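Quick one:
INPUT:
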């Protein structure tokens, strides 16, 4: 992978990791269309991109994490501590399905469905999911609307966590699936996105640690280290900018926020699938 390819893939990773359009699906599709070596074959590069993304999320949501840990410590009173404990439980419960399913089936699913053609099909299905949730939300009663994350139940967190497992199929977006689940459970777009992005932190950190463990016996040249470090910075900045844009966007487009992303996935996924069959 050349330095130019690394920069392009770093930007793509930083943007699509948070946008509901599937970072892995885009990596597989773009690599296949341009005949590039996939980033998933360059483990140090993948690890550093994930590290850059996780740091960006931590920086953007530092206040949320600070308030959560402060509340857990009990310095803010019993009511705040109770609320913080509940939110912490929600994050843990919502993460467990991905840990269990990922540990058992991730490699199998990505080996079977990791082709570029499969990723294009799943990207289209991701688009259908986003558009379907928009229609369902439009018909839903306002009685079940929740004003903040603390109003979610453990059952709600389980549903969000199960939806997150769709991301094991390249082309389905982790953030898109969890935002959709949050909306189905009564959250507004911005609250669903916030919960999705807070959930992303432990998931991405865990993936980074697992991938880094595989590198423990590898040796690298200095120019490789410099290249992946630059790529990580670019991925991190792209992820931070994407998160800032999305949190603003979801606050101001509460009636149709997912539709543009849904149509984008359908167009790109369908176009890529057609291109792969023409190339075959």
């Amino acid at each position: 992978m050349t330095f130019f390819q690394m920069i392009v893939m770093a930007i793509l990773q930083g943007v699509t990791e948070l946008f509901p359009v599937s970072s892995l699906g885009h990596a597989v599709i773009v690599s296949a269309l341009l005949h590039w070596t996939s980033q998933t074959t360059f483990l140090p590069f993948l690890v550093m991109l994930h590290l850059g993304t996780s740091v960006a999320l931590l920086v953007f949501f530092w206040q949320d994490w600070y308030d959560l840990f402060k509340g857990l410590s009990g310095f803010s009173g019993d009511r705040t501590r109770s609320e913080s404990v509940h939110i912490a439980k929600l994050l843990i419960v919502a993460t467990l399905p991905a840990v269990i399913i990922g540990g058992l089936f991730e490699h199998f699913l990505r080996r079977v469905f990791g082709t570029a053609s499969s990723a294009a099909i799943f990207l289209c299905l991701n688009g259908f999911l986003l558009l379907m949730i928009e229609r369902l939300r439009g018909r839903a009663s306002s009685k079940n609307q929740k004003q903040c994350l603390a109003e979610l139940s453990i059952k709600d967190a389980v549903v969000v966590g199960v939806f997150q497992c769709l991301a094991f199929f390249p082309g389905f977006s982790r953030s898109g699936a969890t935002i959709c689940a949050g909306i189905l459970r009564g959250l507004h777009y911005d609250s669903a996105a916030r919960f999705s992005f807070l959930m992303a932190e432990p998931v991405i950190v865990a993936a980074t640690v697992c991938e880094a463990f595989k590198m423990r016996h590898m040796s690298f040249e200095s120019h490789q280290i410099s290249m992946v470090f630059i790529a990580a910075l670019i991925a991190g900045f792209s992820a931070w900018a994407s998160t800032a844009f999305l949190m603003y966007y979801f606050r101001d487009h509460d009636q149709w926020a997912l539709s543009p992303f849904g149509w984008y996935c359908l167009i790109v996924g369908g176009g890529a699938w057609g291109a792969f069959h023409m190339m075959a």
